[in-house]
Amino acid sequence: MPPHTGYPILEERTLPPPRRRLGLFTRRDPGELPDAPPGTVLVFAVNGGYKAYTDSGHLRGSEDAVVEARSVSVVYVRNRRVRVDVELPSGDMGYSFLLRATFECRVTDPEAVVAAGLDDAATVLHHHLRNDTELMELGKGARVEDVHALSATVSGRVRAYLEFYPARLPGTEARLADVAVLPPNDILHHGQRIKQLGWEQERKVLEWAIENRDVARIEEIFRRGAEAAAALAASRGELQLGDAVSIAREAEVNRVKYLTDLIERLPEGSLDFLPIDTQVLVNKVMKSVAGVEPFADSPTDADRPRAVENKQAGAGDDGPRMIGLEDLD
Fold first, then answer.
1. Cα–Cα distance between 235 and 105 in angstroms, integer?
2. Helices (H), 48-100
3. For residue range 73-98, what is the model confidence (pLDDT) as tens digits?
4. Which domain of life, per UniProt (predicted)?
5. Contact, 97 vs 147, CB < 8 A?
6. d(CA 253, CA 257)
7. Which of 44, 42, 162 has its CA nearest to residue 99?
8. Cα–Cα distance between 157 and 136 in angstroms, integer?
9. Alpha helices by DSSP H, 38-120
10. Using CA atoms, how far apart are residues 12 and 50, in angstroms rounded to an integer?
């Protein structure tokens, strides 16, 4: 007989008739018996009854129950968790809720287990839960998206049902350890995908905001001129300091050149009407081109001769005077 994949009976084996030795006594070859892994016991079917050998010692094959047994079963007697899944119909056609109940099971009487043929406790518990008609109706009025609201109701119903109508598991105790209600896998994946898309959008919005602030900051630096842009590149290690100085000096020379070109394009005599200090302009040009201040400082406002408004030039008067519109005729 092939091994079972269930619990608590792991394996059952039919035994051949024992051999007689010298016609005086009968003995069974221990090699005919199945292995008994840790946590299991051997239960022998003897004369319509059952005998469990819980002794940790090895069987010799001469024991009465071993010699007379017609079959033997391997029973797992340690605690084991058994998971049971039951589908509950929902209000959405084609979809069901998944009720997952976890039981803590323990064999208390291995002989009663073999007598009842309890080789799959999970199947027994599954059928027992499905026999609760009220439980099977709880999800029919709910959408699959309402799984969390339904979970508390289903959990309470399962616990009450098992309290008043415990499952019949001969020789085995089964205690409910946990109850959960799960949505269908595709609905679960859909919800996860929607959540991930929301998180991705939030991440993009934050990245855009940071990028816009960075663009505005760099734009403000560019408005301040080539010197500020070169300083930014040097601070980021993208430009050598000497190259940054050269760029700043070139920008200053270009500004003075543009100003000089503008002044040269002005009509003759226009400078007499513009508030331009030519000495200051000369100083800026020399500093930009030569990189040094001029030898002679420009006169201060106190030392500079002032023109006298509406004053007529005399024979001995060489001072400056204000130029009026009548002098342009």
1. 69
2. 64-68
3. 999 999 999 999 999 888 877 788 88
4. Bacteria
5. yes
6. 6
7. 162
8. 10
9. 64-68, 110-116
10. 13
